[in-house]
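This part of the workshop introduces the protein records we will be handling. An example says more than a description, so a record of this kind follows:
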Amino acid sequence: MYEEMTPAALVARCRAGELWQLLDVREPWEVAIASIEQADQMPTKHIPMSEIPARHTELRESDPVAVLCHSGGRSARVAGFLVQQGYSRVANVSGGIDAWSSEVDSSIPRY
């Protein structure tokens, strides 16, 4: 099972020294509108949800993965898939980039 984590909680955990990789599963047009390039020393990988089955091996299984989409629905499905593939530490970023803009960085456009 994956955990649910707010954007603010994820940033706090990273600042406390946890090494999460951020997986953004939104479409390229969404990333062009609003993106998180390097969030508090968190490497960010953009893989659209439809490409996850073929590309999830690009992630490091040894590091926890936080999955992000627009509002949390697609990322929850991808988080569940990653757990099924053997990833042991996976979190869904609750509220997605929309919540990230509200809780963490208001300079990120909302759409």
